[in-house]
Design goal:
- Keywords: Protein biosynthesis, Transferase.
- InterPro entries: Fmt, Formyl_trans_C, Formyl_transf_N, Formyl_transf_N_sf, Formyl_transferase-like_C_sf, GART_AS, Met-tRNA-FMT_C, Met-tRNA-FMT_N.
- This is Methionyl-tRNA formyltransferase.
- This protein has 315 residues and is an alpha/beta fold.
- The chain folds into 2 domains: 3-197, Formyl transferase, N-terminal domain (Rossmann fold); 206-298, Formyl transferase, C-terminal domain (Methionyl-tRNA Fmet Formyltransferase, Chain A, domain 2, Roll).
- It is built from 9 helices and 15 strands.
- It has helices at 13-21, 47-54, 68-76, 93-96, 119-125, 161-184, 206-209, 217-227, 294-298, and strands at residues 3-7, 26-30, 35-37, 42-44, 59-60, 81-85, 103-107, 130-137, 147-154, 233-237, 240-249, 262-266, 269-273, 278-285, 292-293.
- α5 runs antiparallel to α8.
- The chain is elongated, with a radius of gyration of 22 Å.
């Protein structure tokens, strides 16, 4: 058995480690090229590359997996099976046809729901209380292949995109370990996806990060959790970007004000009127500063009740 593993972010690392721990023959790892990161734009390898090198595995980093050179390099490896997990590029038919056992993907949702590049974030942003991992055969469409196995994972109000990445990453690796023996033995039973039930989770944009105070407190709470700790949700304060990293819907009710109006600042945080209910901002990040506890920030900052968040600025 010659396996090629393809993945890029930290989500994929446990699946790669599982293959090595269970003594599968991983002949190479394919990941995205190193990218500039941070304010200094330091060229940084993806987590899967770091993991692969620590395991002594050869690494390929084609800019485009569809290029003839990339396909040829993969063909030289003579893979029996390709395992992918959050690789970040759609594989062309020339790659899908290479391994005799096919290409399988560890996808962070319960397919056919949340096909696409941001299933974990969008499941939280949409207020789901359960998600999961599906292992499927890869096809030419976007996450449309036949499903081999799946596992459910609950989403709690305490979860963020960060905690769910960790949970689903571990669940995906464990599911992969349970799925491979039957697949290799030719005993795996794959079922087509019911396409009529499909929903999509496109990659996030700047628009997805902007808080619309006309929405309910619960909806904004879900948005903030679904964007933390990656991009973060934001609004505007005095025309400058004001990020919100943590918040909770307030209990009880308040005299209605215009959505985005600061009702009180102090004590347990910053209380803001939404289109339905009140939201308490717990962890924030003013422009030019680091993320901090809202109560701590308020010790040295003036934020008057009646201030309206969201005015000014463009996405």
């Amino acid at each position: 058995m010659r396996i090629v593993f393809m993945g890029t972010p930290a989500f994929a690392v446990p699946s790669l480690n599982l293959l090595i721990e269970q003594n599968y023959n991983v002949v190479a790892v394919v990941t995205q090229p190193d990218r500039p990161k941070g304010r200094k734009k330091t060229l940084t390898p993806p987590p899967v590359k770091e993991a692969a090198l620590s395991l002594g595995l050869p690494v390929l980093q084609p800019e485009r997996m569809r290029s003839a050179d990339a396909v040829a390099a993969l063909a030289e490896l003579r893979p029996d099976l390709i395992v992918t997990a959050a690789y970040g590029q759609i594989l062309p038919k020339a790659v899908l046809d290479l391994p005799r056992l096919g290409c399988i993907n560890v996808h962070g949702s319960l397919l056919p729901r949340y096909r696409g590049g941001a299933p974990i974030q969008r499941s939280i942003m949409n207020g789901e209380d359960v998600t999961g991992v599906t292992i499927m055969y890869m096809a030419e469409g976007l996450d449309t292949g036949d499903m081999i196995s799946a596992v459910e994972v609950p989403i709690t109000d305490e979860d963020t995109a960060g905690t769910m990445f960790d949970k689903l990453s571990a669940a995906g690796a464990e599911l992969l370990g349970r799925t491979l023996p039957a697949l290799i033995a030719g005993e795996a039973k794959a079922v087509p996806q019911p396409n009529e039930l499909a929903t999509y989770a496109p990659n996030l944009t700047r628009d997805d990060e902007k808080i619309d105070w006309d929405r309910s407190a619960r909806a904004i709470f879900n948005q903030v959790r679904g964007l933390s700790p990656m991009a973060g949700a934001f609004t505007y304060l005095n025309g400058e970007v004001f990020k919100v990293w943590s918040c909770v819907p307030a209990e009880g009710s308040a005299a209605p004000k215009a959505p985005g109006t600061v009702l009180a600042a102090g004590g347990d945080g910053i209380r803001v009127q939404t289109g339905e209910g009140v939201l308490v901002l717990k962890e924030i990040q003013p422009a030019g500063k680091k993320a901090m506890n809202a109560a701590e920030w308020l010790k040295g900052a003036r934020l008057e009740a009646g201030t309206v968040l969201g005015n000014g600025g463009a996405v």
